[in-house]
């Protein structure tokens, strides 16, 4: 998903989708080789940052890769699950729990 966001940002900045996809594909394969053959870390982001092709969007990378853009409705789903499923199951044991529980998302 992150690479697709990078491609979309490059296209928005005037890049060619096919060219960008090919750049990402090559860089991804190089990064995967480091992981699989050398046991190293995935350095795809570093490779993108070093490639002059991606210069038009380097200032946007933090926003493009912000984890919050990849979690969808998970926070709301967790809150709902806790309130509708978990809390009712804990209610009979409330008097036995000495710990105050607060949840902030």
Question: Can you put this structure into words, describing what you see?
Answer:
The chain has 105 residues and is mostly helical. It starts with a helix and ends in a 15-residue tail after the last helix.
Give the SSE layout.
Elements: H1 2-12, H2 17-38, H3 44-50, H4 61-64, H5 74-90
Features:
105 residues; mainly alpha; 5 helices; elongated
Low-confidence stretches: none
Structural class: mainly alpha
Head-to-tail CA distance between termini:
23 Å
Mean pLDDT: 93
Number of helices, counting only DSSP H or I runs of 4 residues or more: 5
Radius of gyration: 21 Å
Determine the fraction of residues in helical runs and give it as a percent range.
55-70%
Overall 3D form: elongated
- H/E order of the elements? HHHHH
Q: Please report which band the strand proportion falls in: under 5%, 5-15%, 15-25%, 25-35%, 35-45% or over 45%.
A: under 5%
Concise summary:
The protein contains five helices and no strands.
């Amino acid at each position: 998903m992150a690479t697709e966001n990078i491609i979309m940002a490059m296209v928005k900045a005037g890049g060619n989708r096919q060219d960008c996809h090919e750049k990402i594909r090559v860089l991804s394969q190089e990064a995967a080789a480091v992981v699989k053959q050398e046991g190293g870390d995935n350095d795809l982001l570093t490779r993108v940052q070093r490639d002059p092709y991606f210069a038009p969007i380097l200032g946007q990378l933090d926003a493009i890769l912000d984890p919050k853009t990849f979690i969808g409705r998970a926070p709301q789903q967790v809150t709902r699950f806790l309130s509708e499923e978990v809390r009712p199951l804990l209610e009979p044991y409330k008097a036995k729990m000495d710990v105050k529980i607060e949840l902030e998302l």
